[in-house]
Amino acid sequence: MNFKLINRITGAIVFVFASIIYILTVQPTMSFWDCGEFLACAYTMGVPHPPGAPLHVLVGRIFTLLPTAGDIGLRMNYLSVFSSAFSVLLLYLVSVKVILNWKSKLDSTFDYISLAAASAIGALSYAFCDSFWFNAMEAEVYGFGTFLITLCIYTMMVWWERADEPGSDRLIVFFAFVVGLSLGIHLLVVQCVFIAGLMFYFRRYEYNRKSFLIAIGVSMAAFFVVYPIIVKKMPEAISSFPVVGFVIIIGLLVTGIVYSIKTKSSTLNLIFVSIFFVIIGYSTYISVLQRSSVSNIPLDNSNPDNMERLLSYLNREQYGEQPLLFPRRYLKDGMHDRTWKNYSSDMEFMWKYQINHMFNRYLFWQYIGRAGYDQDEGVDFSKFYAIPFILGLFGLFYHFRRDWKMAFVFLSMFILLGVVTALYQNQQDPQPRERDYFYEGAFYVYSLWIGLGVFGIIELLKEKLKASSLIPAASVVLLLAFVFVPANMIRVNYKHQNRAGNFFPFDYAYNLLQSCAKDAVLFTNGDNDTFPLWCLQAVYGIRQDVTLVNLSLAQADWYDIQLKNEKPYGSLPVPFTYTDDQIRKVTKQGYALWDENKLVSIDVPPSAYPDTAKSKPDKLVFKIPATIRQKDGNQTITALKSSDLIILDIIKGNKWERPIYFSVTVTPDNYIGLNDYIIVEGMAQRLTPMKVNNSNIFGLAVDFDKMSKNLLIDRSVVPSKTPQHGFMFRSLDNKDLFFDQVHERSIEMYRTLYLWLAGTMMEDSSKMEIAKNVLYKMEQNIPKEVTRLDYRQKYMIAMFFDRVGDKVKFNEYGTEAYNEAYSIRLSNKNNLSSYYNPYRIMLDILEARGDMKTSMDLLRELNPNDPAVKQKMDAINSRLNPVKIQEKTQDDKNQDKNP
After folding, report:
1. How many angstroms separate the CA atoms of 481 and 395, rounded?
2. In which region does residue 127 sit, left (phi positive, over 0), alpha (psi from -120 to 50) or beta (all else)?
3. How far apart are CA 314 and CA 306, in angstroms?
4. pLDDT at 892 over 60
5. pLDDT in tens, 321-341
6. Strands 678-680 and 701-702
7. Is beta strand 521-524 parallel, antiparallel or unpaired with respect to 660-663?
8. Average pLDDT rounded to a whole number, residues 204-233
9. Cα distance between residue 640 and residue 629, in whole Å
10. Cα(308)–Cα(362) distance, rounded to whole angstroms?
11. How far is CA 270 from CA 169, 256, 265, 275, 407, in A?
């Protein structure tokens, strides 16, 4: 049988199989994190966060226009689906070429099938490893970016085969063009330049120590030509006269190309032409300048509408600077205290956290097994029994045995795209989320080694066994390798990677927007309460009247000036009293010294009050607590963040004409002292001009009417583009779906909203039945079997059911909460610091059950001399022995009468 036919059939099977699994498990709409922003930018041709991804935006725009699905988010997700499937195909083809590089002669159909099957096993191990599968499911840059990495490596492997043929260097030019294009996706692909340099050397030159060192130096120089010279220095050099500068650079390159042709210098010609095509590929950034210059564009991150701002955009200046090499620990704010407490030196931190935790752990996740899906989870040997990992190690060693030059190339690629990338990023502890998606290139190489390892085992069998025994033995090896690597990876990962039917991010954003009244200004906090909302407004046209103010971005002048002056979707601009220059001054300084005793007043017109208000003061007077505190000797310096000043100015400038809300995800320290003027209406909290009643058990004011309409009316069929009460709760009753920690935290907020509403109702004894129905509605919309419930929330739900008289539900939740609290108490008997500590929870549940004896036993474990404990013990004693207490009380009275 012809090997080309077998190769093509196997490649097609690999591509189709990966595609089918990806299509079955893809997110049906947008996802959390950056996906909402990228989808919104693709649909509107907007400008995403620095340093941008113009090629991803341009290609994504094409995918949003293709009639591949009814949902535009799903159309964009297909870009990642098919990019990833093609990456798997290219890995298969590269694996075949790598093996053929040392085994140029295939003796039989058995060799054909062994080669194709081993390469397919390696490729499929990549397709279904944890991180790569995850990225294939959503509209992020990493699926498309990985495709360009695999395309670069495949191109160089084809060049390797044809290097002796006339015109083969055109493939290197194509490689250069792909690298240039990849700069419009992600900078990780640039590291392929060094790999290409090594391949060029090993293929064209004889190896010796001197020439090898020169090749290393030239490869590094080629890398630096692309990054940072072309990426950063070239725009900087032509920033004053961009058109003229660009023409001069192109002119110099053309001159160099002409000179190389005249002098018949093929090497010089290849250098100039390759640089030229890298720049042509990089020219996708022209679209960033063009789109940023458009007025009222919905998303224009950093506003890079001229060369000066584009340079800032490319250099990621809004994120601040970080050291390249040392120090490894450089952030000293409170959030990063553990970086200094847990590691004694920079070198220990570099090894234990930046290399071992932030790269090795991710590698082990893919090929040994992931322990869980919470932040910072470790490795679980029982998932894959390290079989893929061991095969990969064997493949690495076997590759060096058979073809050390190509093995060195791929080992260099693994180190560059793995350990070196981790060190370059200099990540601090903690991170807001896992960063495994950065290392797809390293996982690509490791899966290649898995395929080589499988083929190496078969070659060793061929050396040891007779022909009659070889085919059965090799068949068993291939079957076992397929079962224990890709098949087992699918079995283990499918549940956690399957997002079919998961509409949660869409519904979460929808519910937050619909919590706001018409023309509202909504303060949000981070990525997941902002990016999905941008997407709903830009792509789906939902609640475009609401203006979002992200408090992280509000510390940047360009963002505030856009809010003040732009009118995306024709909506109202955000009201400021600051001028543009004042905004620049406030945000540039980043803070303002602040006296916490200073009284702040905001004018309030009579129209801001409801007609039923008995008092209508013309000013709202309050104090703003400092959000920055710093010790200076014996003094404490207090200040406000620039975002606090922006919030205050927007409230003043608004003059109570537009409703102002804070997302429930915004922490109270962002309320600038207005905590008593905020009322919960859903997933957003509305600012009011008068103090609200927040005396319920949660210390919150709840708008009973609006919360009831939002939580009790189900709108899970068709989302409304205009203001409408009623939340969407699709997916949450689907027990087959997996929700990770990010989803669970958001789902926990939903339950909290129901508890806030029920708790507010229970303040009125006449509304106990309504409160009970609220709890039942919570169970209906968010069954506890779908996502994990923290034992403290189980306790709260149990106590609420007890108060409304449902003992069955109380026992159901109370038993679970009690058992979990009991286990935690056993592991840490001194856990008394938190309000909802295990002892409190167990005692309350026992008391609600009427189990006073066990309550007394539990209290005796605590400090009996503590006044609060003693008071509790006396109260329980009074219930255990009411007759004796009465007799004692009567005796005391008689003694008082007869002293």
Report:
1. 13
2. alpha
3. 12
4. no
5. 888 888 998 888 778 888 888
6. parallel
7. parallel
8. 95
9. 9
10. 38
11. 7, 10, 9, 9, 26
Identify the CA nearest to 51 among candidates 301, 286, 233.
Answer: 301
Least confident range from 140-144, 625-629, 859-863: namely 859-863
Cα(269)–Cα(173) distance, integer angstroms: 10
Cis previous bond, 51, omega within 30: yes
Helix (H) or strand (E) holding 757: helix 741-761
**241, two tokens:** 């006269």
**Nearest CA-CA partner of 762 in 843, 681, 695, 688:** 695
Greatest alpha-carbon span in the chain: 128
Whether the predicted pLDDT of 830 surpasses 70? no
Question: Alpha carbon of 571 to those of 205, 210, 563, 568: distances in Å?
Answer: 64, 66, 11, 6
Nearest by Cα to 413 from 91, 116, 137 = 91
For 452, residues 6+ apart whose C-beta sits below 8 A from its C-beta are 95, 98, 99, 118, 122, 395, 396, 398, 399
* pLDDT above 70: percentage of residues in the chain: 97
Torsion-angle region of residue 227: left (phi > 0), alpha (psi -120 to 50) or beta? Answer: beta
> In the prediction, which pLDDT does 340 show?
86
CA gap 511, 509 in Å, rounded: 6
Could you tell me the two tokens for 580? 């543009």
Radius of gyration of the chain (CA): 32
In this structure, what DSSP letter does residue 522 have?
E
To 5 degrees, how large is the angle CA 219–CA 222–CA 223?
90
- Give me the helix-helix angle, 35-44 and 72-102, nearest 10°: 110
Distance, CA of 475 to CA of 3 (rounded, Å): 18
pLDDT at 670 over 50: yes
Q: Is 6 exposed, middle or buried (0-12, 13-18, 19+ CB in 10 A)?
A: middle
* Number of residues written out for the chain: 899
How far is residue 245 from each of residues 77, 242, 256, 805, measured CA to CA in Å?
A: 38, 5, 17, 78
Task: Give residue limits of the domains in the chain.
Answer: 3-497, 505-788, 850-897
Rounded-to-integer distance, Cα 175 and Cα 173, Å: 5
- Residue in 560, 637, 633, 559 with CA at minimum distance from that of residue 591: 637
Cα–Cα distance for residue pair 616/657, rounded to 1 Å:
16
Q: Specify whether the CB–CB gap between 296 and 568 falls below 8 A.
A: yes
Which tens digit of pLDDT belongs to each residue from 250-262? 999 999 999 999 9
pLDDT, tens digit, 9 for 90 and up, residues 790-812: 889 999 999 999 999 999 999 99
Res 381: pLDDT: 97
Element (H, E) at 686: strand 684-687
The SS3 call for residue 601 is strand
Alpha carbons within 13 angstroms on the beta-carbon side of residue 444 total 38
